[in-house]
Design brief:
heterodimer; A: alpha+beta; Flavocytochrome C3, Chain A, domain 1; Methane Monooxygenase Hydroxylase, Chain G, domain 1; five-stranded parallel β-sheet; five-stranded antiparallel β-sheet; 19 strands; globular; B: alpha+beta; Ubiquitin-like (UB roll); Fumarate Reductase Iron-sulfur Protein, Chain B, domain 2; 2 domains; two-stranded antiparallel sheet; 7 strands
């Protein structure tokens, strides 16, 4: 087993990042002009990284599958972004954000990375405000804050329910400025099909032009993946339809280790599933839990009457309602972390207290409206209420919202060291696609923070440190034999897919994959369910390669071919998730193994055995992957049983 | 529900397009408009027909990727909503629904219902940003911003760049889009240093892209999924004339 070196700087925790910045290698401005960088993905991580690297003087090429970089799915993030400004004077500090994130992640994240994240969080707010991001303000003209799950301070900056949109437009602006200056070239409507290595280093990518179908080659001195998470392996999720795990999966197959794939976040407040026609699930921001109260009926008979539509939730008095989060977790109440809230909802529904289809609980604003007035609720959450109304045809100002957990984020991802470099030299990963900061569960309003921290403030230093050794590496031409080889494999695969001409559509197989994953590798897992999944998934994969039906041609616009490539990779990725969930014989964060729970039904973490990062190495298509361990060593944090009671 | 569809099919930008009729017999009123099209495409694939190409991504009304002209209206009959948020319950059993792409010279059709909106990106590249480098920003609370202005800037900034304003306008004008972008930054103190160059550059690029002019039809505001106010066009015009006079250019 290889020992994974996370390259964490020496010295006390609070000094590590400063120390790194003081000692890392630099590249002088004249040399930066000679170095090219590829960034794949234009969400918060990708756009901020590309803009910042171009500002430094590097030549940057940016790729996205969308028609414009501004449409990456960071745009859909609703609630907010955390930072340690401590403007409300309520006791926040770098240490507290660090500690909350480590605890929220159920003690499975790396201390040094998380501390750095907390350290640079304030700079992100400064940067965004200077870009013109219109955060919510108070009447005095200064920035407003709200609270989020897993924290007892108000440290979340927000722009109504569109914080992700505003931050992404800020980063897109910075990116555009560099496009204007000729330092960034954007390649939109491109699907990254593989990474090209030369002399063991990542030196380029191959893309498919989604309009012409052309296969295109691009070279650089380093490749940065900012391609987001793999939650669409569950088919139904809060991800965009185009969110795919393929770039990360190609990286894995090129030698980048894949860490903690089993750590998937199921978000507690999403709109419930309605039927088989459904293509995606819509999130209702966690910020709603600041003022909304979650409940189900105390009596099963009432739940049944509600499901049949015989009574309205408003008919039930205070004593007939079970505010189960407030009951079980009095200290944090409705603001417990996401994994805890999701499991509690599932527990109530599994026991017959669910409403709606039986797979839903109420999120009620009656008390908030009585306390603050309807206008105040509208000012805070108006757009979210509108979204809910449009999708569900019910007015949440009058009847409580119905919500249920849905796949939302993946904490797992490509293993990276402190420099955000994967195990492939020259291949870096920022934002959700890496595994580094959130452990086994991510706190709300921390994804935006991490994407921007990586892109604006971390990668510019760590990538320069890497490139300082590449000054004498000449530019590659796309005629190198490595490009020929990879392109040949790509063409073979595309032709193979087109020639199957089977009977099932890509979506039909993707939905079946989703069912297997949700039922067997979802919110609650057992040894049996995972072993079952590991039998079903290879069979489904085989079926896909024998029976998928893709219309049209390889050339020109063909969304079905694009999706087929993604689903082919999801079918393999799903198996790795199940494998990782099976080896981790404990419950922590978003990974809940039924065998490992306390008498009260809380997650039972096993620090003695499982205090490590499981990083998987690809060994070939017919071989079992090998897991390597990075021990999680805490210098500062004392591990406790996570309690929100 | 039974639904009849008349959908614009066009092989590529230069090919001649035409309407093709389809029928779906079992559409759930709870499904979204795009889910209905998914269902149609599943049928078409099974019948060895070419599925209808349309753009879409987040399906929660925020990425601005989807945009269909439905029964003569950008994003369909529901006010303040993108196509992905439109649900079939907005239609009646047996309805015939006509579906077209955005039609504008500056948005050429790529295939079927998919159009090229890169003109918007080029307008943004011409000056739709504040020039600051990562790492150089001052402390965020050093500069208070009047709440009213911050809120108005936010309202303008909620534009999702879908292009419905262009599609709805009889002149295919992009002035609501550009006006919203100009206003967002013009309303904030941070946007002041470059305000004049910004409005001149962006308006110039808008004209170069071949968008039409505003003739106060206001259908852009009526069809905007984010209900962006035409007041932003007025603000842009005021900014533009001010900047023009100052710059001494014609």
């Amino acid at each position: 087993m290889t020992k994974l070196d996370a390259k964490i700087p020496e010295g006390p925790l609070a000094k590590k990042w400063t120390r790194f910045r003081n000692t890392c290698k630099l590249v002088n401005p004249a040399n930066k002009r000679k170095l090219d960088i590829i960034v794949v993905g234009t969400g918060l991580g990708g756009a901020s990284a590309a803009a910042s690297l171009a500002e430094l003087g590097y030549n940057v090429k940016v790729f996205c599958y969308q028609d414009s970089p501004r449409r990456a799915h960071s745009i859909a993030a609703q609630g907010g972004i955390n930072a340690t400004k401590n403007y409300p004077n309520d006791g926040d500090s770098i240490y507290r954000l660090f500690y909350d994130t480590i605890k929220g992640g159920d003690y499975r994240s790396r201390e040094a990375n998380v501390y750095r994240l907390a350290e640079v969080s304030s700079n992100i707010i400064d940067q965004a405000v200077a870009q013109g991001v219109p955060f919510a303000r108070e009447y005095g003209g200064l920035l407003d804050n709200r609270s989020f799950g897993g924290a007892q301070v108000s440290r979340t900056f927000y722009a109504k329910g569109q914080t992700g949109q505003q931050l992404l437009l800020g980063a897109y602006g910075s990116l555009n400025r560099q496009v204007h200056q000729g330092k960034v070239k954007v390649y939109a409507r491109r699907d990254m099909l593989d990474i090209v290595l030369h002399q063991g280093k990542a030196r380029g990518i191959i893309t498919r032009n989604l309009i012409t179908g052309e296969i295109e080659r691009h070279t650089a001195h380093a490749v940065v993946l900012a391609t987001g998470g793999y939650g669409n392996v569950y088919f139904l999720s809060t991800y965009a339809m185009g969110a795919n795990g393929s770039p990360a999966w190609k990286a894995y197959k090129k030698g980048a280790y894949f860490a903690n794939p089993a750590f998937v976040q199921i978000h507690p407040t999403c709109m419930p599933v309605k039927g088989e026609h459904q293509s995606k699930l819509t999130l209702m921001s966690e910020s709603l839990r600041n003022d909304g109260r979650i409940w189900v009926p105390k009596k099963k008979e009432d739940a049944e009457k509600l499901r049949k539509g015989e009574i309205s939730p408003n008919d039930l008095g205070e004593e007939e309602r079970d505010y189960y989060l407030e009951r079980r977790y009095p200290a944090f109440g409705n603001l417990v972390p996401r994994d805890v809230a999701s499991r509690a909802a599932k527990e109530r529904c599994d026991n017959g207290f669910g409403v709606g289809t039986g797979q839903a609980v109420y999120l009620d604003f009656r008390d908030a409206i009585n306390r603050m007035g309807k206008e105040a609720v509208e000012a805070k959450y108006g757009n979210l209420f509108e979204i809910y109304k449009k999708i569900n045809d019910e007015n949440p100002y009058e009847v409580p919202m119905k919500i249920f957990p849905a796949t939302h984020y993946t904490m797992g991802g490509l293993w990276v060291d402190y420099h955000l470099q994967t195990t492939v030299p020259g291949l870096f990963a920022v934002g959700e696609v890496n595994f580094s900061d959130h452990g086994a569960n991510r706190l709300g309003a921390s994804a935006l923070m991490q994407g921007l921290a990586d892109g604006y403030f971390v990668l510019p230093y760590t990538l320069s440190n890497y490139l300082s050794d590449e000054l004498h590496t000449p530019r590659l031409t796309t005629k190198e034999k490595e490009f020929d080889e990879v392109e040949e494999q790509i063409n073979e695969r595309l032709e193979k897919l087109m020639n199957i001409k089977g009977s099932q559509t890509v979506d039909a197989i993707h939905k079946r994959l989703g069912h297997i994953m949700w039922d067997h590798v979802g919110m609650s897992r057992t040894k049996e369910s995972l072993e079952e999944a590991l039998k079903m998934l290879p069979e489904l994969r085989k079926e896909f390669w024998n029976d998928v039906k893709i219309p049209g041609h390889q050339h020109g616009v063909n969304p079905e071919l694009m999706k087929a490539g993604w689903v082919a990779d999801f079918l393999e990725l799903g198996e790795l998730i199940a494998r990782d969930a099976l080896q981790r014989e404990e419950s922590c964060g978003g990974h809940f193994r039924q065998e490992y729970q306390t008498e009260e039904g809380e997650a039972l973490r096993r620090d003695d055995e499982y205090s490590f990062v499981g990083a998987w190495e690809y060994k070939g298509d017919d071989q079992k992957p090998e897991m390597h361990k990075e021990d999680i060593v805490y210098e500062v944090t004392e591990r406790k049983t996570r309690s929100y009671k | 529900m039974k639904i009849k569809l008349k959908i614009w099919r066009q092989e590529n930008a230069t090919a001649k397009g035409k309407f093709v009729k389809y029928q779906l017999d079992d559409v759930s009123p709870d499904s979204s408009f795009l889910e209905m099209l998914d269902e149609l495409n599943q049928d078409l694939i099974q019948k060895d027909d070419d599925p209808v190409v349309f753009d879409h991504d987040c399906r929660e009304g925020i990425c601005g990727t989807c945009g269909l002209y439905i029964n003569g209206r950008a994003h369909g009959p529901q006010k303040g909503s993108a196509t992905c948020q439109l649900h079939m319950r907005s239609f009646k059993d047996g309805d015939t629904i006509t579906v077209e792409p955005w039609r504008a010279k500056a948005f050429p059709v790529i295939k079927d219902l998919m159009v090229d909106r890169s003109a918007f990106d080029r307008i943004m590249v011409s000056g739709g940003y504040i020039s600051i480098n990562a790492g150089s920003a001052p402390e965020a609370n050093n500069m208070p911003v009047r709440k009213e202005n911050a809120d108005m800037a936010f309202d303008a900034a909620t534009c999702i760049g879908c292009g419905a304003c262009v599609a709805a306008c009889p002149n295919a004008s992009a002035m609501l889009f550009v006006g919203a972008k100009i206003s967002h930054l013009a309303l904030l103190p941070q946007g002041q240093p470059e305000a004049e160059e910004r409005v001149l550059e962006m308006v110039n690029q808008m004209d170069l892209e071949g968008f039409g002019n505003c003739s106060n039809n206001y259908s852009c505001e009526a069809e905007c999924p984010k209900e962006i106010s035409v007041g932003n066009i007025a603000r842009m015009n005021a900014q533009f004339f001010g900047a023009k006079l100052k710059s001494g250019k014609k």
